[in-house]
Amino acid sequence: MKYFLLFVFALSLNLLGFGQNITDAIRKTDNERFSEATLDFNKLILLEPKNACNYFYAGENYFEKGEIDSAILYWNRTMDMDPESPFSFVGIGKAMLIKGDVIGATKQFSEALTMTKNKNAEVLRCIALSYLSAETKNLDEAIRLLTLAIKKEPANIDGHLLMGDALNLKTPDNGSAAIKSYNEVLKLNPKSPKGIVRTAKLYQRAKNYPLADSLYKVAKNIDSTYAPSYRENAELNMMFNQSAKAIDNWKKYLKLNNSFEARYRYAVALFKGKQYCEAINELLNIKNNAFTNHYIDRMLTYSYYECSTEPDAITKGLQTSALFFASCPPEKIIYLDYKYKGLLLSKNGQDSLAIIEFENTSRLDQKAALELAGDIAKLYMKFKNYDKAVGSYEFKLKESKLSVAEYYDLGRAYYFGPKNYVAADSALSIVNKLSPKYIPGYFWRARAQIASDVTKVNWLAEKSYRSVLELVAVEERSSSKYKTYVLEAAKYLGDYYVNSASKDLIKAKECWVIVIELEPEDKQAKAFLGIK
Prior knowledge:
Elements: H1 20-30, H2 34-47, H3 52-65, H4 68-81, H5 86-98, H6 102-116, H7 121-133, H8 139-152, H9 157-170, H10 176-188, H11 193-205, H12 209-222, H13 227-239, H14 243-256, H15 260-272, H16 276-288, H17 294-306, H18 313-327, H19 335-347, H20 351-362, H21 366-382, H22 386-397, H23 404-416, H24 421-434, H25 439-452, H26 462-471, H27 483-499, H28 505-518, H29 523-529
């Protein structure tokens, strides 16, 4: 299931000629209580089977709910039920527009406008909303229609709301035009939660968390039953890592709209907010109540990998991944689906299968290849296939930077694979720069420098080994983690202070004392220190 919430459903609740029942149903759609609205519209259709408006707004309800096929079905039925209604032409036109038939949709909309002589403000608004919510948008035509609607009904807040939405899409980097329209809404009705929420969303997009958050609170205080204000506030909280506040807002939203569709949106928000363990619980609850689709299996697959505290997470993730690939239409599979399958296989000890999965995924497109290059390289490092690891990292470097860990692996891959010690030195020098206290980075750079200067003509590794000794605390020198590093560094520096141009026997003795303390039987140390 895919849901669309770019626009809060913005249709007048005081439509001329509309009964209270349809007004109540539209209000429920507006408040995102889609299942309740569906029941209301079904009752209205039974009572008035020839009323095109009932089918049209039922279609709008399904559209906002995210059930596009059902929405198109209801819009198409408008013409069969009432071929004389302008809303039948709007419904048919919107169905065509959603399916990409712009020419056909334009013809239907023109017919509706001709029938009403451009004087029915609601028809104007509905056609404008069609242009705003379709994938193929016509913002200029939407703005033209809304200008006519506002001229016809200047006190109708929905015209100004939609105009704000249109201008927001027209100039996404400058919200000043949109805010003027939303301010018109608040002039007409200072306590309009829809107007306040729209304004808050503009500030949210501008990343002004305090102001957006305060406006959402104002909307909730004005109308504690207006569910979208809680959902939008929760999504704002998620954006700014306010997980506790987000969950609190979602819980309040669910009290107003505790349908499976609402819980689905909550689960999606948890997933997008990287609250993977919490998302698993919600997704399983939804799935166990016979509300399922391949998107749920996708999110569960990713979440099982990311949630390390979930019992048997990797096994469950692989099982859910198999269900996903079995149910998802091939054209809807994305490279991340293959990526997570590969990551789960790797975590399950099936590295060879993981590599195959990653390599197959990399062939899908350039973006997939670049994103997966680091994961592939790590697996090659695990298998000690250093040449291929180098190839993967070099491919990634063409388009993006490596992480510190990746530069570290690349340096070691150069060292062990093609034995390109100069390239290894260069990669590890970046590690030293980006992570100046990471001891293994200095150690392996020293080894690369030794390999480039076997005869110690230039003593290239002196600085790197000195950094090792400086960074390892005295009390940690004998630990299994650092003992090898310290011994090698101390021996090299002990030799350096004896045989290089920077001869310093006092410093040499300090180094060999470190060696003898760690390895009392070391022959070189005993020889230098005169120990028998």
